[in-house]
Amino acid sequence: RLVYILKELELCQFENGYISAFPEILFDHVENGKPAWVPWYTMHKIIAGFVSVYHATQNMIAYQLADRLGDWVANRALGWTEEVHNRVLAVEYGGMNDALYHLYRITAKSSHMEAAHRFDELTLFHPVQQGRDILQGKHANTTIPKFLGALHRYQLTGESFYLEASVRFWDMVVKHHSYMTGGNSEWEHFG
Fold first, then answer.
1. Could you identify which of 29, 80, 101, 172 might form a hypothetical disulfide with 84, taking C-beta atoms 3.0 to 4.6 angstroms apart as the criterion?
2. Among candidates 162, 161, 77, which has minimal Cα distance to 113?
C-alpha cells in the first residue's frame, strides 16, 4: 500500500519538485503579505513524512519525492529578500527548519542545509538563548518544532548557540509554562 501511494504521489509531483494538495500560489500570498492560511506548516509535514518513510523503508521513491521537494523549497527560500524572509517567518511555519535538516541528513545537499537555516528564527532563538522568557502568548505547537530544528542544527554543525537556545527553551517550558498534568499550553498558546 505504501509503495502504491508513493507511486501515485510521484505522478502528482510537478516538474519543479512541488507537491501538495493546494496550489503554489498560497506561498506567493505568504511572501506578499496576503491571507494564505499556513502553507509552510503543511509543507513541514509533507517533507517530514517523506523523510520518515525513507528512514523506515529505504524506499527510493520517498527519497526522490523528498529530495525534489527540498529543491523546490531551497529555490524559493534562498531567493528571498530580507523583507520577504521576515514576512514568511511571521506566519506559522512549524518545523520547516527541522524537516529540512532531516532532509539534509539523507541528501547531503548544501542547498537543503541553507534552506533549513532560512527557517531558523533567530529573533526567537537569541532572546531565549540569553535567558529571556518571551514565550507568553506564543503559539506552542509551532514554537516547539522551531527549537527541535535548532537542536538538530546543533547536532549537524556543533554550533553551541543552538544547543544553548534549545536547553533554555526546554527549561522555560518545563519550569514556567507547563501544567501539573504535563500540558504546556491553552488553546495552543503558552500561558
1. 80
2. 77
Cell (9 digits) for 146: 522551531
Contact 2, 53 (CB under 8 A): yes
Reported as a single tens digit per residue, the pLDDT across 9-24 is: 999 999 999 999 999 9
Cell numbers 503579505: residue:
33
Q: How far apart are CA 162 and CA 126, in angstroms?
A: 9
CA–CA distance, 78 with 124 (Å, rounded to integer): 20
Total-model pTM: 0.95
Measured CA to CA, the distance from residue 28 to residue 162 in angstroms comes to: 30
The residue whose grid cell reads 511555519 is 93
Which residues have C-beta within 8 Å of that of residue 34, sequence separation ≥ 6? 28
Distances (CA, A) of 43 to 55, 93, 98: 18, 8, 12
* Number of other CB atoms surrounding residue 182 within 10 Å: 7
CA distances from 40 to 82, 83, 116, 149, 174 (A): 18, 17, 12, 14, 27
